[in-house]
């Protein structure tokens, strides 16, 4: 684990962020970041706990919750509310625009679809809006999320 999460690879940015914020990057924090890095889904804290517990059995659910809130506050992890009453988490990939995506959320079955089409066009509009909001309110925007709610293809077909 030390090679992957040490001073090379994806761990380098995380170590820098932790040191810069005055935090230690503990084994539980590393494992939580690893689980998020390897996941293709939007995981709840409970999902993360179950995966981390397999690797690090002494971790408690409270530690996972506290760590996730710290990671969200540091800007390393996004926290989403898709309207199902459970917060979901996703690793922030930094300034890598190739991994930037938005979400389509089915209000019937709860399916979450990541999409990256039209991102360039959306970002152009969002950047314009961002500049105006920053100017008007003196607010420094560091990131954004965009979610559309409706019916997925399957649920739409069932309803018709």
Describe, in plain words, how this protein is organized in 3D.
There is one protein chain. It contains 7 helices and 5 strands. It has 160 residues and is an alpha+beta fold. Strands 4-3-5 form a 3-stranded mixed sheet, with no helix packed on it. It has a two-stranded antiparallel sheet with strand order 1-2. The relative contact order is 0.11. Mean pLDDT is 83; it is low at 1-9.
- Tell me what the CATH architecture of the largest domain is: Orthogonal Bundle
Main sheet: strands, sense, barrel:
3 strands, mixed
Q: Estimate the strand proportion.
A: 5-15%
Q: What Rg do the Cα atoms give?
A: 18 Å
Distance between the terminal alpha carbons, to the nearest Å?
51 Å
CATH-assigned homologous superfamily of the largest domain:
Winged helix-like DNA-binding domain superfamily/Winged helix DNA-binding domain
Low-confidence stretches: 1-9
How many distinct folded domains?
2
What is the class of the largest domain in the CATH system?
Mainly Alpha
Shape: flat
Within the largest sheet, what's the order of strands? 4-3-5
CATH topology of the largest domain: Arc Repressor Mutant, subunit A
**Structure classification:** alpha+beta
Q: Helical content, roughly?
A: 40-55%
Instruction: Give the number of helices.
Output: 7
Number of strands: 5
SSE string: HHHHHEEEEHEH
Mean pLDDT: 83
Topology:
Layout: H1 2-5, H2 11-20, H3 27-38, H4 45-55, H5 61-74, E1 77-81, E2 87-91, E3 102-106, E4 112-115, H6 119-137, E5 147-150, H7 153-159
Parallel strand pairs: 3-5
Antiparallel strand pairs: 1-2, 3-4
Helix pairs in contact: 3-4, 4-5
